[in-house]
Structures are given as C-alpha cells and as structure tokens.
Amino acid sequence: MSGFSSKRLFAFMYKETLQAYRDPSTLIIAVILPAIMIFLFAYGVSLDTNTVKIGLVLEDTSQKAQSLAHAFENTRFFNVKVRFDRKELTQELLEGVIRGIVIIPQDFSDKIGRNLPSPIQVIADGSETNTASFVQNYADGVVATWRLSLQQEQGAIEPSSILTEPRVWFNPELKSRNVLLPGSIAIVMALIGILLTALVVAREWERGTMEAIMATPIHIVELIIGKMTPYFFLGMGSMILCVALSILFFDVPFNGSFLILGLGTALFLLAGLAQGLLISTLAKNQFVASQIAMMAAFLPSFMLSGFLYEIESMPASIRWVTYLLPAKYFVTIIQTSFLAGVVWSLFIFNMLAMLCIAMVLLFFVTKKSKKALL
C-alpha cells in the first residue's frame, strides 16, 4: 500500500460526494427521515396531561356535596361527567371513555357537619400510570382547596400568612415538548449518523465496488476520511434542519450557542459515522447492517440516553452501560443548550467523552479495514 496522498484523498472525496448526492436513498436518510421523525416526536410524544375525562358520582345531593362537585367541574384539569349512579361510570371506565371516578358518598355532608372524617373515593385507571397519578393528585388538590375555602367561609381558620411562590427554571411553562424535542434530535441524529454509512457502504460491499476500491493503492486513512466526509456534511445539514424546525416551527426556546452546539454535533456525528463504517465492514449486507444499526443506534439511544427515562433511576449495571453511548452525552449537551444556555463544565466533559468514543471506534474501523485489504 502506498503512503498518504492528499491529492488522492481529495479525488476520492470528490468521487464519494458525487456518489452520495446522486443516491436517492442517501438524501432520504439525510433530509426526509429527520423531518418526519421530528414531526412524529413533536406531535406523537408528550408527557403533558392537560385535560382528563373523569366521572363524578354524586350520591349526596346536599348543598356541600354539590359545592364540591362544582369545584371539580370548574378546574381546568378535569372534564367532568356528573352522574348519580356509579354503574354507568364504571362501565365507561372499563371501556376507557373516562380515566377516573370520584365518588361523593351519601353521608358526606352529614359527617362534614359533625366534624367527622368524610372520605371521598377516587378510582383511577391504572393502565395509564401517568394519567392515574394525575387524577389522584389533582383530585386531592381540588378537595384540599375546597375544604380550605369552606373553613374560611365558616370562620374556622384564618387565612395563612405563609405563602409559597413557586418558580420553575429552564422550562417555566412546564411543556414536555421543550424537553422532549431537543432530546429527540439526538435520537434522530444517532440513527442518521449510523445509517448514512452503514447502509450505503454495505450496499457497496454487496455490489462489489468496495472490493474494487480496496484493490487500489488508496491508503486506509484516505479511505476512511473520504467515506466519512460527505456523510459528515450531510449529517450536519440534517442537524441544521432539525434545529430550525424545532425553533421556528415548534417554538422551542434556544438559550445556548449555535457554535458550541455545532461542535458537539460534529463530535457526535464522528462517533456515529465511525460506528456505521464498523457495522458495514462487519456485516457487508444492507439488511443485516440495517438490523444492527437499529439495535446499536436507535434502541439504546432511545432507552438509555436519558431522553425519556432518568438514568439515575436505572440499576447500577445499566447505568454503567450508558457511559458507552455517545447519545447520553449528546442529549445532555443539546437539552442544556436549548433550555439552560452555555454550561462549560458540562459541555467540556461530555464533548471529551464523545471524542474518546469516536477515537476508539475509528481505531477499530482502521484495524478491521486493514484486515480487509489483505
């Protein structure tokens, strides 16, 4: 094999760039796929629970019971259906029409009048755990607010002089989209970065063109750089598209630096493209490469990056695995850039971690490719 040649490298890069831009599947992966996934994540994934349909059984028709029922009806968090018999609402809960039932018992006002405990039953649909917790917590809040108002009207207690003033940093509106959409960009880029090289290069192995390239005097470093460069710029273009859609179309706030975000994206793409090259070198088949790419990129990034699930709540053995995933570090960088701004202590650590992972992957790509040249 001849030594490194910059002239040969640029010629090979030019050839790969033309091939990439003339390949419809490459443009689909780099442009159409990220746009579709961003829209799916923006509209299909949400942790916000704005209004929940519940039923309210009014077995006690006294004035106090009706006052409590009005308190449930007036809250913006519940869409309340009032009935006087629990049988109809029980059937609707079974059918999924409503997500919970609040039952005001017959002796409610009587016990209130005698200062006795007056329990109110709250039944929640446990098949939707987040919604069930929402129903229980807000039902407790409605009852507590109503009881406090009743006691103040009766002069039983004085209004408290201690007030809490809640303030939420980074996401004041508590919109899950502002957190999930930046994190989803990392998942999209993880999939795109690996697919761009894994599928395209695997197709070259299938067609025999890769063997022809391997038979030329091209240096292995030239081969790796030439293969990765056009897909690197395509990946950066995909990132620009995703960020632009998030900010301009979905109104996600961005408080960081585009330059720093671009640097983090470059390191993340370097690791993803290297992983894709390694997969294509090992698989040499598009179908196998696509399956491995899904298993190695999308699923681990989706489940173990901290995008949806808190890493600290995972078992210790799984937490150690997350340190091997570039997506874990990129999710932190991109969510911090969107919501908090520039936090150098956080960025430097995560960028160095991605750089180390990329170097290790490139080392294995080089070793494997050298064997293929023999």
Write the layout of secondary structure elements.
Elements: H1 6-22, H2 24-44, E1 52-58, H3 63-74, E2 78-83, H4 86-95, E3 100-104, H5 108-113, E4 121-124, H6 129-153, H7 176-207, H8 209-214, H9 220-249, H10 258-283, H11 286-304, H12 316-322, H13 326-339, H14 344-373
Parallel strand pairs: 1-2, 1-3
Antiparallel strand pairs: 3-4
Helix pairs in contact: 1-9, 2-7, 2-9, 3-6, 7-9, 7-10, 7-11, 7-13, 9-10, 10-11, 10-13, 10-14, 13-14
Task: Give a quick set of tags describing it.
374 residues, 4 strands, abc type-2 transporter like fold, mainly alpha, 4-stranded mixed beta sheet
Account of the 3D structure:
- The protein has 374 residues and is mainly alpha-helical.
- It folds into 2 domains: 6-46 and 175-373, no CATH class; 52-153, abc type-2 transporter like fold.
- Helix content is 68%, strand content 6%.
- The protein contains 14 helices and 4 strands.
- The protein has helices at 6-22, 24-44, 63-74, 86-95, 108-113, 129-153, 176-207, 209-214, 220-249, 258-283, 286-304, 316-322, 326-339, 344-373; strands spanning 52-58, 78-83, 100-104, 121-124.
- It has a 4-stranded mixed sheet with strand order 2-1-3-4, with helices on both faces.
- α3 (63-74) links the parallel β1 and β2.
- α7 (176-207) runs parallel beside α10.
- The longest helix is centred in the middle third of the chain and has 32 residues, at 176-207.
- It is elongated and about 95 Å long.
- The protein starts with 5 loop residues before the first helix and ends with a helix.
